Amino acid sequence: MTDTAAAEDLGDDRTLLLVDDDEAFLRRLEKAMEKRGFTVESAGSVAAGRAAATARPPAYAVVDLRLEDGIGLDVVEALRERRPDSRIVVLTGYGAIATAVAAVKMGATDYLSKPADATDIVNALLARGEDLPPPPENPMSADRVRWEHIQRVYELCDRNVSETARRLNMHRRTLQRILAKRSPR
């Protein structure tokens, strides 16, 4: 589906709520979605996202899973309470099956791993019924997924290399070498 056709399929309600604490990403996505015909409201925290979802429930929402002040699923829940027919895509840099299942159970329409571009997001928002959105043109490589998982566990262990290595069943020096490198593409 092209962006033009996608914008025409939206009907009258083209309201979109974007919730992400990465300011640069949020601004880029906001501009890209406005170009695709959405009326965008953005929020940089769970509190601001919940307030916007409660005050002006949008037809569509794109919510980051992990925000500085909490978890994006709280915004999904608030939006579902106010507008059950809304279409919600959850974004995260830490893709995991457990969080994907939780997001869908809370009412998310789809779940995408970052970096997702505006086209991937529009396709996920507009997919109807049994239609699945097409696979992303530039999915994360296996090396990138592995690196993201290691980074997530490292952060959850409060940046403790020894504890992270133990939980990943990995030698500490191997982990140190991985952490010292730049992220793969």
UniProtKB/TrEMBL annotation:
<dbReference type="InterPro" id="IPR011006">
    <property type="entry name" value="CheY-like_superfamily"/>
</dbReference>
<keyword id="KW-0010">Activator</keyword>
<dbReference type="Pfam" id="PF00072">
    <property type="entry name" value="Response_reg"/>
</dbReference>
<keyword id="KW-0238">DNA-binding</keyword>
<dbReference type="GO" id="GO:0000160">
    <property type="term" value="P:phosphorelay signal transduction system"/>
</dbReference>
<comment type="function">
    <text>Member of the two-component regulatory system RegB/RegA. Involved in transactivating anaerobic expression of the photosynthetic apparatus. It is a transcriptional regulator that is responsible for activating expression of the puf, puh, and puc operons in response to a decrease in oxygen tension.</text>
</comment>
<keyword id="KW-0805">Transcription regulation</keyword>
<protein>
    <recommendedName>
        <fullName>Photosynthetic apparatus regulatory protein RegA</fullName>
    </recommendedName>
</protein>
<keyword id="KW-0597">Phosphoprotein</keyword>
<dbReference type="GO" id="GO:0003677">
    <property type="term" value="F:DNA binding"/>
</dbReference>
<dbReference type="InterPro" id="IPR050595">
    <property type="entry name" value="Bact_response_regulator"/>
</dbReference>
<dbReference type="InterPro" id="IPR047772">
    <property type="entry name" value="ActR_PrrA_rreg"/>
</dbReference>
<keyword id="KW-0902">Two-component regulatory system</keyword>
<dbReference type="InterPro" id="IPR001789">
    <property type="entry name" value="Sig_transdc_resp-reg_receiver"/>
</dbReference>
<feature type="modified residue" description="4-aspartylphosphate">
    <location>
        <position position="64"/>
    </location>
</feature>
<feature type="domain" description="Response regulatory">
    <location>
        <begin position="15"/>
        <end position="129"/>
    </location>
</feature>
<keyword id="KW-0804">Transcription</keyword>
